[in-house]
Amino acid sequence: MDGLLLSGGTDLHPSLYGQSIEGSVNIEPGRDALELEAWQAARARRIPVLGICRGFQAINVFSGGRLVQDLAGHTAPAPGGALRHLLRVVPGSRLARILRPTGPVGPFQVNSSHHQGVRVDDLAPSLVASATSPYAGGELVEAFESADPADFVLGVQCHPERADSSPPEFARLFTVFVDAARGSAAGTRVG
Predict the structure, then answer these.
(1) Cis peptide before 160 (omega within 30 of 0)
(2) What is the residue-wise DSSP string for the chain?
(3) Architecture category of domain 4-185 in CATH
(4) Which of 59, 89, 53, 58 is nearest to 71 (CA)?
(5) What is the pLDDT of residues 154-172, one digit of tens each?
């Protein structure tokens, strides 16, 4: 593989981050094992990785971070469309450069269909927050990237593939990821 995309889906088993089940639902241990193996293979080869929603959470957990098992108010249906919340992009981050190559970036309103999340204090040590949102218990990480700028690991909690509820700039995530994977296949790094 030249790149690994970890997509949305069910909850990770809390035992992967040292907790018992206290809000996690619809757990698929087989998927957890498969994605962990794919993650380890990708890291061994240092190929680009993009995580979306569950994939964002999986990258954090597989890297030594933890999750909040149940975020109140993040999955309730919104009248007339997707529930949305504020996302503030960290200036100078890889995400900021992807979303808006020139000029200031955000804040954005993004879709919110997850009931689990990552608090700033629960972020894995090898990752840095590239976007956050306010939450009752403090700040939630909404996007992260590798602390090593030469390593293409990027995760977003929202669903950028849902064009009806994502800012149009978020479509650039896929272009940059594919370009990075092409660079991986050619022995070079992009992004």
Answers:
(1) no
(2) ---EEE---SBPPGGGGT---SS--SB-HHHHHHHHHHHHHHHHHT--EEEETHHHHHHHHHTT---BS--TTSSSPBTTB--EEEEEEPTTSHHHHHH-SSS----EEEE---S-BEEGGGS-TTEEEEEEEEETTEEEEEEEEESSTTS-EEEESS-TT-TTTS-GGGGHHHHHHHHHHHHHHTT----
(3) 3-Layer(aba) Sandwich (3.40)
(4) 53
(5) 999 998 888 787 888 999 9
* pLDDT reading at 135 higher than 90: no
Query: Which class for 86: exposed (0-12), middle (13-18), buried (19 or more C-beta within 10 A)?
Result: middle
Tens of pLDDT, residue by residue over 18-39, are 999 999 999 999 999 999 999 9
Asked if residues 42 and 49 have their Cβ atoms less than 8 Å apart, the reply is yes
Q: How far is CA 133 from the centre of its chain?
A: 13
Question: Would you kindly state where each structural domain of the chain is located, as residue ranges?
Answer: 4-185
Query: Any idea which residues carry the catalytic annotation?
Result: 53, 159, 161
Looking at per-residue pLDDT, the higher value among 145 and 106 belongs to 145
CB of 67 closer than 8 Å to CB of 23: no
Position with higher pLDDT, 119 vs 103: 119
For the record, the structure tokens of 154 come out as 């990027």
Contact 86, 58 (CB under 8 A): no
